[in-house]
Design brief:
- There is one protein chain.
- By secondary structure, the protein is mainly alpha-helical.
- The chain has seven helices and three strands, in the order H-H-H-E-H-H-H-E-E-H.
- The chain has one domain (4-161): dinb family like domain (Four Helix Bundle (Hemerythrin (Met), subunit A), Up-down Bundle), CATH 1.20.120.450.
- Strands 1-2-3 form a three-stranded mixed sheet.
Amino acid sequence: MLSSEDRQQLIAKYIDGFKEVEESLEGFSESELRARPIEGKWTACEIVQHLADSESVSAQRFRRLLVEENPLIVGYDQDKYASALRYNEREINPALEAFRSARATTAQLFKFMTEDDWQRQGEHSESGPYGVEDWLRIYAAHAHNHAAQIRALRVAMQKTVGTGNG
């Protein structure tokens, strides 16, 4: 069980996630957004599309945890989504807006939550027991982790350009 202080820190981190992703993308050209400087890793464009889909899914998960009794939270194959939904071929601005909006509307709910709400539980199809606090731990870090991946892509592209292999 999270303390009130830990919870508030995670909420602040969750709220800050969009801004960090947005900042990590500053200065990327259209071609750089789609470049794959690290073999086997997603491009910046794919990461943004993933964040839009993931945030939509997470918003629904959060609401189901708050409203339904012991909901089943179903996992999904993010790599199949990336491929089938052509993440690297789509424009990122609508995805960024979907990510921002889903996160903003979810963040509004935190101020209305009771202690009982924070203890609500469901079951994840892949990992078992899954509660509201589990959700917060995961999604508070999610955008920040992807912002770090985007920054790593930038570094890898700079190294490629610096060696003449770009």
